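step=encode ok
step=design start
structure_in=
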């Protein structure tokens, strides 16, 4: 038989609370096992790879217009896989962190996959057409030169770095939202 640490009352063996004072009984013989650390890398790599490839493909990437759909899916997939490590016990911060990591990984993957696609799409004809449109619009010379260089054929370091930074900001944010939403959905299923 156990005794209450607060009031000293004798407690039945399986008591969770003291019957006299209501103090919670901690089981000294079987202390609660600490939860294992969550492994964020593998789920985030999977979510980031999915996000990165789908966001780089020319026609499929158009669905990102719908609230950055692929970024939210990537964050959601990472959080869903993270939930398998600790079913039903994820916190919103866990989902947000997994989402941000998958968004950053997805930004690098999208940038790398986009390089050969942009080299194919930005032909000399495309650059000439953009330059003509800028000339007709009477854009300031500094902006015009930047835009011509940005859309120049072949590999452009400016375009690549600008794309990487933009992807990191947007994908990180929307993947975080996807991770948080996934935690909310998983927690709601747990309550039902």
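sequence_out=
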């Amino acid at each position: 038989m156990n005794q209450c640490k607060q009031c000293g009352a004798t407690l039945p063996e399986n008591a969770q609370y003291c019957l006299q004072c209501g103090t919670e009984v901690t089981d000294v013989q079987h202390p609660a096992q600490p939860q294992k650390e969550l492994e964020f890398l593998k789920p985030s790599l999977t979510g980031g790879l999915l996000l990165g490839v789908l966001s780089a493909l020319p026609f499929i990437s158009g669905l990102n217009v719908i609230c950055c759909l692929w970024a939210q899916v990537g964050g959601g997939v990472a959080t869903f896989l993270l939930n398998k490590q600790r079913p039903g016990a994820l916190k919103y911060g866990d989902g947000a962190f997994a989402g941000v990591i998958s968004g950053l990984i997805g930004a690098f993957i999208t940038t790398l996959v986009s390089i050969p696609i942009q080299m194919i799409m930005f032909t000399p004809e495309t650059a000439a057409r953009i330059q003509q449109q800028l000339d007709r619009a009477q854009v300031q010379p500094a902006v015009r030169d930047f835009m011509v260089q940005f859309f120049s054929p072949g590999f452009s370091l400016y375009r690549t770095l600008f794309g990487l930074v933009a992807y990191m900001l947007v994908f990180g944010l929307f993947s975080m939202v996807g991770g948080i939403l996934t935690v909310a959905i998983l927690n709601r299923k747990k309550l039902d």
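step=design ok
step=annotate ok -> The chain is about 60% helix and 0% strand.
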